[in-house]
Design brief:
2 domains, mainly alpha, 4 helices, about 0% strand
Length: about 90
C-alpha cells in the first residue's frame, strides 16, 4: 500500500517540481483532443477544469441573492433557537 501511494505521488508531483506537467494530465489532454471536446490550445489541467466548473457557476444574480439571503436567514435562525453557550469546566 505504502509503495503504491509513494509511486502515485511521485508520478504526479516530481514532474511538477521539475516545471513539467503530470503524465496523467498530459494523457487527459490527449484524450480530450482525441474526443474533440477541446482544442489542443485550450487544454488545461484536470483539477483546474473541474474546480472552475464548481466554483464559478453560471447563475443569475437574482438566484445568487436569494440563496445568500436564505443562508443568512438560516444562520440567524440557528443562533436564535440555539444560542452559543459557555462550556462548563470539567472536573479534573
Amino acid at each position: 500500500m505504502r509503495v503504491s501511494v509513494i509511486g502515485l505521488l511521485g508520478t504526479a508531483t516530481v514532474p511538477i517540481w521539475a516545471k513539467g506537467i503530470c503524465p496523467l494530465t498530459a494523457w487527459e489532454w490527449d484524450l480530450r483532443v482525441a474526443a474533440a471536446s477541446v482544442s489542443p490550445a485550450r487544454a488545461e489541467p484536470f483539477l483546474i477544469h473541474w474546480m472552475r466548473d464548481i466554483l464559478f457557476l453560471d447563475v443569475s444574480p437574482i438566484v445568487l441573492s436569494v440563496v445568500t439571503a436564505l443562508g443568512a436567514a438560516a444562520t440567524l435562525t440557528i443562533f436564535i433557537l440555539h444560542p452559543p453557550r459557555k462550556r462548563e469546566q470539567s472536573p479534573q
